[in-house]
Amino acid sequence: MTALKTPGNPGNARYAQFKSTRPQAGIYPLTLYYESACPLCYAEMSNLMLRNQGGQLRFADVSAPGFADVPEGATMQDLLALIHARTADGRLIKGVEVFELAYRAVGLDWISAALRLPVLRPLADWGYPVLARNRHRIPRRLVSLLFEGSVRRAAERAASARCDAGTCSR
Predict the structure, then answer these.
(1) Where are the domains of the chain?
(2) In Å, what is the CA distance from 119 to each residue of 12, 60, 113?
């Protein structure tokens, strides 16, 4: 049986890259451009906002009245079609990569890691645009069922994080 890692064999270099969850330089803070008028988008961003204890994420609601901060390299139509984000170093990214980096920023490393799997990533890259095109057709009740528990847990964690040494600030 051969060892997975030896000095002369990079072995699991791809696994190490997959497993890596350290923030990359120039990524954070990451500004997410999302549409709060979409129930699915709103639920997911609410979940991320509640988990954003480290302040790694910024949120820009493109459906807010008077929104005019369209990033260079995108149009308003682009922002409404797929999720986009601007990295700290100014790069514009979109689609599944945005979710991967956002989940990593809020400590949901297992989701971020799953999105880097060679089997799941192509499926996610194919499926997300289909989901995004049809997101307004998803019944609100289904969105509520999918996100209710997650958002509640995130809210509980956020509330408990404000308690330090027995003193709570609310």
Answers:
(1) 25-168
(2) 17, 31, 12
User: For residues 26 and 78, what is the distance between their CA atoms, to the nearest angstrom?
Assistant: 23
6 pairs with which residues across the strands? 9
Which helix (H) or strand (E) segment holds residue 167: the answer is strand 167-168
Sign of CA pseudo-dihedral 115, 105, 33, 145 = positive
Task: With beta carbons less than 8 A apart as the criterion, state whether 46 and 149 touch.
Answer: no
Enumerate residues 6+ apart whose C-beta is below 8 A from 81.
132, 133
**Lookup result for tokens 């120039």:** 26
Q: What is the C-alpha to C-alpha distance for residues 35 and 164, in angstroms, rounded to an integer?
A: 34
Which of 35, 23, 147, 137 has the alpha carbon at shortest distance from 83? 35
Residue 147 to residue 28: CA distance in whole angstroms: 25
| DSSP annotation of 9 | B
Judge contact between 4 and 12, C-beta under 8 A.
yes
Confidence (pTM): 0.78
Q: What is the pLDDT of residues 93-149, one digit of tens each?
A: 999 999 999 999 999 999 999 999 999 999 999 999 999 999 999 999 998 888 877
